[in-house]
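Field: COMPLEX_INPUT
Field: COMPONENT_COUNT = three
Field: RESIDUE_TOTAL = 1274
Field: MODE = joint
Values follow.
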Amino acid sequence: MRIRRANFVSYRMLSSFFLLLVAFLGHPATVWPQQKSVKDESLVLPGEVGRSGGRLVVSLRGEPKTLNPLIAADSRSREVIGVMQADLVHINRATQLSEPALAKSWKLSADGLEYTIVLRKGLKFSDGQALDADDVVFTFRIYLDENVHAPQRDLLIVGGKPIVVGKVDAQTVVFQLAKPYGAGERLFDGLAILPRHLLEKPYQEGRLGQIGTLATAANQWAGLGPFRMKEYVAGQRLLLERNPYYWKTDMRGNRLPYLDELVFLFVPNADAQVLKFQSGETDVISQLGAENFSVLSRQQKGYTMTDAGPGLEYNFLFFNLNDAGEKSSLEMRPKQKWFRQVKFRQAVSAAVDREAIVRLVYQERGSAIWGLVAPGNHRWGNEKLAHSPRSLDRARTFLKEAGFSWSNGPAGESTLQDSYGQPVEFSILTSSSNADRAKMAALIQDDLKQLGMRVQVVPLEFRSLLDRVTQTKEYDACLMGIVSFDADPNSDINVWLSSGGTHLWNPSQAHPATPWEAEIDRLIEEQMSARTFEQRKKLYDRAQEILAENQPMIFLASPDILVGSKNSVGNFHPAVLEPYVLWNVEQLYLKSLPAIGTR
Amino acid sequence: MRSRRTFTKWLVVLGALHTIVVCAGFFAPYDPIEQDRKNPYLPPMQLHLMDLQGHVHLRPFAYVLKLREGTFDQYEQDTSQPVVVKFFKSGAGYRLLGFLPSRKHLFGSEETRICLLGTDAYGRDQFSRLLYGGQISLLAGILGAGCTLFIGLFVGSVAGYFGGWRDDVLMRVAELFLALPWLYLLFALRAFLSLSVSPLKAFFLIVVVIGGVGWARPARLVRGVVLSAKERDFVRAARGFGATDGYLLRRHILPETSSVLLTQAAILVPQYVLAEMTLSFLGLGIPEPVPSWGNLLSNLQQYSVLVSYWWMYLPALAMVPFFLGYLGLASSLQERGEAYKIERRGPGSLT
Amino acid sequence: MRFFLRRLRHALFLLLGVSILAFLFTTLAPGNYFDEMRLNPQIAPETVAALRAQYQLDRPLPLRYASWMNSVVHGRMGFSFAYNTPVAPLLFARARYTLLLTVTATLIAWGIALPLGVWSAERFGRWPDRLLSWGTAALLVIPDLALALGLLVLAVRTGRFPTGGMTSLEFERLSLGGKLCDLAWHMTLPVVALVLSALPLLLRHVRAAVVGVLDAPFMLAARGHGIPRRTLLYRYALRAAANPLISLFGFSIGALLSGSLLVEVVMSWPGLGPLLLESILSRDLYVVIGGVLLSTFFLVCGNFLADIFLYWADPRIRTESGAR
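Field: COMPLEX_OUTPUT
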């Protein structure tokens, strides 16, 4: 009798306990990795779980000018904006592949002309306001508005026509393209989604350019990034604090970011960055030159220096191939005759000592390149391109075939002269503020001296240089470098296309000047709309081959990405795409929090 | 007089230093633009008289420097390879004083390059670059100072002698010159010049511009001297005898300014050599591969060079005797001027 | 009175002339602010051209000058392309920090130069004076750039001084006394660099001026009267030698805003220097013109003050200008 009652009681207790257990397991704050409740969908990041708290100090070379993505034209502003804003689809800097960000998922229609993007639920801006499809539509409307002159506008013109954005429901947005876009959803990387509740009124009043300045009060600005504005001290630093509504969590369900505060210290130049890092005032350092890297690597007290491998920067020498027709001066005409001969350019390319450049300029922390696709770009390089070593004999053969000859001067030196007997002399422009490229120019000057060419290196201040190269077109040769901001070929499209502004040897052409440039134009346009990676790669490989055959740009070297961090910084995984160190800032944490007041 | 002795002493010292620089071809062992890409940032070679066994040699010798394993720029002496220094050795050709071809150098060596002050980023011998660089920098300083003093003399004497509205206008123009953003003008000038102008010529043009700008202060000094000299008894007397303005200026007043001019010259030359260094800092200096003192020291702007390669400081030390020489000359000239002072000078004349 | 009015008129003409010339020069240099965007592969040339038109960079020069004058009168002094704000508040905020540094450095430099110069002049020709002369000559030779860099390296090596900046991260949370201490600590190295670069010239001039006066007959007479040495030196000699020193002081005031550019840039001091340098390099025209005008204003003020002091202090000037 007693036993049966006990059984009955324990059965009830067991079942209620079971119910409680189920309820407990259903509670979002459990240890098991699972999504939060249906109202709040966040992105779970794989990787090491860190601890919450602490402040990271980063130095910035120069000052940001604004927090508003619509007017940010300089790289410091973009660096700061990058940690305060978020995009629909993001390119993972480590894998170089696209990932869902604010968008939970996306679907491409069969004809490749329509993207349907589904947003996560429960997204909030950093001031607590909810995000929905209206914000997305509004954002793209401003980007595309011709009167706003947003720099993002040109990115959203595909196939000659701007993208059309439409709202389907509160969580779904549809984008319509005029032509299929080969790079696909990578288009959306970096396009921050802006808060409609803060920008709508200024937009209607036409004052969009005046908001989002650094002096804005912290509660007047909002974004979807891991950090939000806390304090700005003019000329010295920018203090950011954690965004409590951030939509990413780690594997254990802790809301990211780990850090309480992120501080950007403004320093005047790279050497000041090194000083601050060495004295312990900053926690991470990136964009280091090879020499500073060696200095820091000598005594690694409390910090570790890392060589993250080859990056996406390519440095090159190019000649003035503009056809100015009657307008060209008398001096330029014979020089351009030399520059236009393919064999002349190939001779220069054969004479350049790339190995010395990598050794003396980058201290072996770099690689020689013969094409536009730098070694840091794993997927798109053409492996079949020849990497011919330096050979002065081959260079001389090229020059002889092009009709050049050598004459011996009175002091024993030989001078190169063309078929009319005119000695070959020209100047190479370089930016006076970039010490690495100045060094490369000096090395090339000496290399070409061995061929009998008299080369002068002319350092010009950067804006004067740009003016000469892109506007007045009065120069002989120039040495420049470009950093691709994405591994995808479309990021360099203005270099490839003959109508592009960065097609530096002959920019912004109305029609392609040479048959091979026309061919490259055709290949690039085709790969822009091609649907599969294999198709695009084949077309892109062929474009690279044509570039190598004609050598309008003589590629020199590409530096490695050199960074450093204090040992107390966890989850430090530098990438070779910008931003090298802060791309995963939401996952960075401090392994041991410093005692209060020591800094 | 003691001041005359010091003056001669400084003159002799400066003369000796300048001779070394002018005959740089002889004193420098190598061509300053010759690169040696296998030996960047070589530290200075130590000359020894005593070898490891304790024997003393009459001829100094050095050891070949080899790269330490695993490093990029750390060298150590290879004591198995001593290299003897030969004097009056024949080497690369050069032109003494610009026209005498010669091949003799003060010292050199057969097997390897003796780099007394080490090498730079491209492996070029710093000692040779220092000597050849002195030619360019000192010439720039002297040219700039000459320009400034010429304009200053003209403006100052006109302002001081004629006075009145000419004085007002010229002094206001002087203030204007002091206030303008010359940095901008220099950038503009540099960018404007046609690229076919050789960079060396472009540099001298810039030097002339600086010289043409800094006349304000010497002009004021000259004006002060002329103002006071104008009222002196002997000038009044000469005017009373019917001397013309031109005669007065030439024979009586301008000679009074000589001490001020000389003193200013001795101060300005080192200042303009330093200005050339600042220009190099801003990227407006002598371009590669021609050496100049500004070039040599502008490497030090980079923090990595500042802390890793101490021998890059040495060119600064080598400049010190030149500057001290000029300043010593200037102060001995000033002392001479003061020692011969008989009358009190007028107000404002020291400004 | 007429003297002052004339000087005032001259000063105004000078400011106007400088503003016109500065406008001309800034347009002479090729390139403009939006050139950097041209190299950005993401931005099309049409956008750049539209921005240029929006900021009225294509209008003719006299029209731009007129509209800039208008904005000066309204207290805005033009518009900065980079910061997207009016120029005047930007400049004034930074000028405050520069003045903090330069006023301190000037006061310290003069405070050292006057007594030291007088002391050295008194011992003219003897070895303490010679030692001082050599020391100042050595300092004169070192460019202030090298000085600033050397001090920075010292800061890193010893770790006792901050490597740049004006305030620490915790500045806002400190008490008033703590804030002053923090500021002073950050100011030490830049002020030392400025004082060391200004001192040699000041010392030489003070010494030369006092030496010129010490041999005068009236000094001999005063000594004969038995006036004590210190009074002799400071009340008699220094007063008589004041003429060139006042002009020099005027120059010092004039250089308050512009003399510290290099030191500020090297030591990351958030003053006018780094702002102007960056604006020059990025062609932010109106910031440059505003900065130049501000510096000229100080220069003019300095000269003006020097002339007033000279008029008041030196009776010889008064008689001479009266006789003119």
